[in-house]
Structure formats: C-alpha cells, structure tokens
Amino acid sequence: MTLLTIHPDDHPDEMTVLDDPTQIARRLDEVGVLFERWTAEQAFTPEASQEDIISAYQTSVNRLIDRYEFQTADVVSLRPDHPQKSELRAKFLNEHTHAEFEVRFFVEGRGLFYLHIDRKVWLVLCEKGDLLSVPAGVKHWFDMGKNPDFKCIRLFSNPEGWVAQFTGDSIAERFPTFEQFLARHA
C-alpha cells in the first residue's frame, strides 16, 4: 500500500499519515513533488533486460521524456541476492540533492523515499505503479531495505545519470528505516 507520513524534522515520532493516493498526490504537489499512480501491469522475469522493461512502458516513458526533455532512461533492479546490496543501500541512505529532478517509476516491488522540505520530512512508501518526481535541490534519501526487491525506471536530464551532492547531515539516522516503517504501518 502506498503511504505518506509527514513529520517535523526535529520530532520524528510526530506524524500525519495519508494512505489515499489522491490525497498523497495533492499533499506532495503542495511542496512541488509530482506523484502519480500508473498502471503497472507488466510482469517480468528476474532476467528481464533494461530494454525489455523500458519497452513495456515506452508510451508513458516517452510522454515524460517529451514533457521534461529527459536525456536518458534506465532501470535499477535489485533483488535480495544482489552482491552489492549493502553498499548501495548505504549510499542512498545519506541525505543528498541533485541538480536536476529525480524521477522513479516502480514497475515492481517497493522502497521508501524521505523528502526533507520546509523543516518537515515526508516519508513516501512507493510501490508497484507509483511514479515519484523529486524536484532539483530537494534534500532527500532513499531506503530500499536490507533485502531489496524492486525494479524502477529512472529518467534523467543529465546524460551522466545519477549524480548526487551529499549534505553531510545525519538526519537520516533519526528517522525509521524501511523495515521499522513497515513494522509500524504495514
């Protein structure tokens, strides 16, 4: 289930909880974050190629490429047996920004985005069918869990792909991990 919790950045235990996708989209739009629910009806084998996955959603991907002039699209796919899952998780768990907006469409699985905006932290549990676009310059981090299991199409304006500027802030340590969030809300 897609879920949004909103916390004061200095009181992680205080929160507003939303589980209706329309309300989630409306609240995120208030802070400039695009959230949409797409139909994710394609099933993929673990061996599905990046080209197969993008091709299955080409019409929707092209709509975003045309609208936002993206230069590249790729697929990030992580499974519990990925040999570098711990290193990748640690990298994404650090608060960072991007010079461009970050777009993710979950075609399988789920992950937890943390958006640090206006002295609040917005936790967005994204799952299959969710599209999230984080504006350029917004501080955020991502937790895929200890045993990641997801596929996401990523779209970039920068031909180099994912380039982060880390803030050095330890705020992520004060908020629940993916597993803690699921234990509390799922």
Feature tags:
single chain, 186 residues, alpha+beta, Jelly Rolls, nine-stranded antiparallel sheet, two-stranded antiparallel sheet, 5 helices, globular
Structure report:
It is a single chain. With 186 residues, the chain is an alpha+beta fold. It has a single domain, classed as Sandwich (Jelly Rolls), CATH 2.60.120. The chain has five helices and eleven strands; from the N terminus they run ββαβααβαβββββββα. It has helices at 21-29, 50-56, 58-68, 85-92, 178-185, and strands spanning 3-8, 16-18, 34-37, 72-78, 96-97, 102-117, 120-127, 130-134, 139-143, 150-156, 165-166. The strands form two sheets. Strands 1, 2, 3, 4, 6, 7, 8, 9 and 10 form a nine-stranded antiparallel beta sheet that branches. Strands 5-11 form a two-stranded antiparallel ribbon. The longest helix is centred in the middle third of the chain and has 11 residues, at 58-68. The protein is globular and about 45 Å long. The model has no long low-confidence stretch (mean pLDDT 92).
Describe the structure in brief.
The protein has 186 residues and is α+β, with helices and mostly antiparallel strands. It has a single domain, classed as Jelly Rolls (Sandwich), CATH 2.60.120.
Q: Secondary-structure blueprint of this entry?
A:
Blueprint: E1 3-8, E2 16-18, H1 21-29, E3 34-37, H2 50-56, H3 58-68, E4 72-78, H4 85-92, E5 96-97, E6 102-117, E7 120-127, E8 130-134, E9 139-143, E10 150-156, E11 165-166, H5 178-185
Antiparallel strand pairs: 1-2, 1-7, 3-8, 4-10, 5-11, 6-7, 6-8, 6-9, 6-10
